[in-house]
């Protein structure tokens, strides 16, 4: 092939991240929705399990801290080595991390960004149920009832797609484990609470208004306590007496409009999951220190041009560095001149299309040092021989100059629990269909199944869904 593809990642697998909420409650198993990096693509020349810690954009080298693969076998193993690798083109797709905005105690909460996060959450949920079933809170006194309820009160911070999907999955799980005669914790049926705190006036603002209302109605019908216009200002780390401090905007009793006044309350909780906000990972800041100041977007992401290239310092090769996904601040060019430009959303759909776009740029061997990139005078084959056929083919298609990246929005999906989901189908800026409920659920499952990494994953996920529907969700802690 023209490209020698080397993948560097601390995680040795790809995962379909929109299904992490399902994995965290046992609807599907972790291994059903993951695929090993080495097995995922036959074009991968080499995979290195490690974390990129530094980059030199002048010399085109990257520093990698290899993972410690023997820590679980031999605790006295020396720290893994650090290696330096050369590159011709560096594609930075490091994603983002959860931003707790400096809220005291928020760094101790659980997250839902990786398979490890889902595994920890699944274990923690099971521990909460077991903790609430201990003899010290099994009685009928007011104090015991209050403490039992606190131990199985689950606070979800953030009303975006991740937050509402987790809320929906948790209600499904609780319905399974608290069923009379069949559930493992039927005595906790009246004690379990799911509280969703969202700082905005509406859930899932990415969806159209009608679907936002349906999301709120569906979750409340399932027993989720939704607190809108509410910020979490503190989370305690005292396991025996955990709580979260909430600050909610107060509505004017006459006009019904929000005021600047806030109502403070303390919510006893057993478990808090932070699903609100994202921030760049440390490697992005390391990279920005070598780039011009105009490369830094106000939220810490890397500003890129329509070909996903950041501004480069003098002496560094333009086109040798690409940034995509959550790490990039890329403008969304609207066909309507009155709409102006806005940033592309930080979604897997955007990152996937950007990755395919960069792959085409490299495969077509454009001269990436120019703006816009254009075909070279005779593309080079892997043997170093001019390949005019590619140039002629690109000219025939009118692609002498590389077109800028254009995001095609195909819609959004979100699960609400109880066999209901939001489905917004669109092509670009044109909304085609919008469903909420069982019809949206069928579309949600169909799309999520197709989007799995490999055929193996599609088969395993299907079996997991069938197994969960027949036997319920497994909360065994291993």
Can you walk me through this structure?
There is one protein chain. The mean pLDDT is 89. This protein is globular. The chain contains 11 helices and 28 strands. The protein has helices spanning 20-23, 37-40, 115-131, 142-151, 161-177, 209-221, 282-288, 348-363, 388-396, 438-450, 455-471; strands at 5-9, 13-15, 34-36, 44-56, 61-66, 82-86, 90-92, 96-98, 153-157, 193-197, 225-227, 230-235, 243-251, 258-268, 271-274, 278-280, 302-303, 321-323, 328-329, 331-332, 342-343, 366-367, 374-375, 379-380, 386-387, 411-417, 420-427, 430-437.
Shape: globular
Structural class call reads alpha/beta
**Poorly predicted ranges:** none
Reported for the largest beta sheet, the result is: 4 strands, mixed
In terms of DSSP E residues, the strand content is 25-35%
Enumerate how many helices there are, as a single number.
11
Keywords:
478 residues, four-stranded mixed β-sheet, globular
Write the topology of this structure.
Elements: E1 5-9, E2 13-15, H1 20-23, E3 34-36, H2 37-40, E4 44-56, E5 61-66, E6 82-86, E7 90-92, E8 96-98, H3 115-131, H4 142-151, E9 153-157, H5 161-177, E10 193-197, H6 209-221, E11 225-227, E12 230-235, E13 243-251, E14 258-268, E15 271-274, E16 278-280, H7 282-288, E17 302-303, E18 321-323, E19 328-329, E20 331-332, E21 342-343, H8 348-363, E22 366-367, E23 374-375, E24 379-380, E25 386-387, H9 388-396, E26 411-417, E27 420-427, E28 430-437, H10 438-450, H11 455-471
Parallel strand pairs: 1-4, 7-18, 9-10, 9-15, 10-11, 17-19
Antiparallel strand pairs: 2-3, 4-5, 5-6, 8-16, 12-13, 13-14, 20-21, 22-23, 24-25, 26-27, 27-28
């Amino acid at each position: 092939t023209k490209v020698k593809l080397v993948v560097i990642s601390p995680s040795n697998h790809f995962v379909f991240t929109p299904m992490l909420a399902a994995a965290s409650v046992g609807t599907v198993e972790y291994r059903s929705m993951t695929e090993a990096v080495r097995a995922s693509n036959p074009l991968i020349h080499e995979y290195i399990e490690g974390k990129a810690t530094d980059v030199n954009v002048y010399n085109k080298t990257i520093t990698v801290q290899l993972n410690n693969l023997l820590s679980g076998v031999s605790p006295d193993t020396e720290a893994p080595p650090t290696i330096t690798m050369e590159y011709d083109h560096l594609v930075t797709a490091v994603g983002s991390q959860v931003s707790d905005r400096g809220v005291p105690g928020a760094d101790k909460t659980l997250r839902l960004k990786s398979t490890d996060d889902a595994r920890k959450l699944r274990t923690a949920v099971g521990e909460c149920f077991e903790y609430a079933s201990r003899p010290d809170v099994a009685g009928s006194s007011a104090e015991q009832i209050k403490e039992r309820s606190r131990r199985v009160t689950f606070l979800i911070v953030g009303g975006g797609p991740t937050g509402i999907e987790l809320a929906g999955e948790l209600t499904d799980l609780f319905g399974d484990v608290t069923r009379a005669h069949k559930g493992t914790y039927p005595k906790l049926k009246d004690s379990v609470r799911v509280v969703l705190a969202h700082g905005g006036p509406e859930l899932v603002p990415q969806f159209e208004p009608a679907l936002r209302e349906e999301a709120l109605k569906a979750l409340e019908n399932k027993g989720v306590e939704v607190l809108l216009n509410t910020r979490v200002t503190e989370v305690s780390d005292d396991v025996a007496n955990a709580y979260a401090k909430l600050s909610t905007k107060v509505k004017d009793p006459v006009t019904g409009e929000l005021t600047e006044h806030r109502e403070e309350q303390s919510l006893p909780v057993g478990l808090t999951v932070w699903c609100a906000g994202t921030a760049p990972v440390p490697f992005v800041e390391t990279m920005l220190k070598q780039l011009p100041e105009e490369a830094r977007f106000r939220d810490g992401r890397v500003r890129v041009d329509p070909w996903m290239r950041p501004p480069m310092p003098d002496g560094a090769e333009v086109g040798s560095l690409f940034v995509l996904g959550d790490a990039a601040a890329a403008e969304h060019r609207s066909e309507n001149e009155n709409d102006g430009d806005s940033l592309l959303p930080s979604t897997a759909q955007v990152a996937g299309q950007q990755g395919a776009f960069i792959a085409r740029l490299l495969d077509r061997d454009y001269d990436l040092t120019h703006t816009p990139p254009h075909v070279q005078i005779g593309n080079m084959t892997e043997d170093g021989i001019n390949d005019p056929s590619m140039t002629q083919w690109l000219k025939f298609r009118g692609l002498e100059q590389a077109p800028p990246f254009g995001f095609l929005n195909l819609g959004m999906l979100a699960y609400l629990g109880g066999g209901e989901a939001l489905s917004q189908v669109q092509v670009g800026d044109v909304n085609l269909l919008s469903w909420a409920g069982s019809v949206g659920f069928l579309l949600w499952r169909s799309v999520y199944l197709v989007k799995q990494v490999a055929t193996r994953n599609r088969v395993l996920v299907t079996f997991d869904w069938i197994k969960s529907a027949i036997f319920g969700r497994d909360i065994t802690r291993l």
